[in-house]
Amino acid sequence: MVTAYTGPSLGRTAMLESGWIFYSGTLPASRLDVVDGAVVELPEPEPTEEWVPISAFIGALYALIPAEQVAAVMQNEAALKPALAGLALLSSDAAPGGMIDLLDERVSEWLALVDLTLDQVREQMHNGGTL
Questions:
Q1: What's the total number of domains in the chain?
Q2: Are residues 67 and 121 in the same domain?
Q3: Domain span at residue 118?
Q4: How distant, in Å, are the alpha carbons of 2, 18, 25, 95, 113 from that of 10?
Q5: Do 118 and 57 share a structural domain?
Q6: Got the DSSP string for 43-104?
Q7: Are 95 and 118 in contact (CB under 8 A)?
């Protein structure tokens, strides 16, 4: 598994001594792997029926998350930052082309932050007319 380092700069030598491997490309961590001690770029994943447009996903969230809960999260910095960061991550690299891969484990993790399940979101997208 590839993890992006987001801590303070330690310098190249210290980071290499700590076991980090440098990658100078632009792909997100979800498209990288380590093989024989080197970072390799993975091919773009093939779409499945579990990929949905970001707009349909967001539309389902609007319908499922009560306005009071959204307002409460907006007022709570500790809750707002992970919610926004998670959603930004999902929309940036869960699936290319403005899609979200519902089977990406981060989707369920993010939904748990707002007390929703993947099944609830799927049902809303299908029955709510966003798909």
A1: 2
A2: yes
A3: 51-127
A4: 19, 10, 20, 32, 32
A5: yes
A6: PPPPP-TTEEEHHHHHHHHHHHS-HHHHHHHHH-HHHHHHHHHHHHHHHHHSBTTTEEETTS
A7: no
Show the 3-state SS of 99-120.
EEECCCHHHHHHHHHCCCCHHH
pTM over 0.85: no
**78 and 35, same domain (yes or no):** no
Q: What is the pLDDT along the chain (131 residues), one digit of tens a residue?
A: 677 777 777 888 888 888 888 888 888 777 888 999 889 998 877 777 888 888 888 889 889 988 888 788 778 877 777 777 776 666 665 566 778 888 888 888 888 878 899 999 999 999 987 66
Which residues partner with 101 through β-bridges? 51
From 79, 78, 77, 75, select the one nearest 114 (Cα to Cα): 79
Q: Give me the residue label for tokens 């981060």.
A: 106
Angstrom distance (rounded) from CA 14 to CA 101: 36
89 and 63 part of one domain? yes
